[in-house]
Amino acid sequence: MKTYIPKVEDIEKRWYLVDAEGKVLGRLASKIARILSGKNKPIYTPHLDVGDFVVVINAEKVRVTGGKEKKKIYYHHSGYPGGLKSWTYEELLKKDPSRIIRKAVQGMLPKNKLGRRMLKKLKVYPGPEHPHQAQKPQKIEL
Question: May I have one GO cellular component term (predicted)?
Answer without folding.
Answer: cytosolic large ribosomal subunit
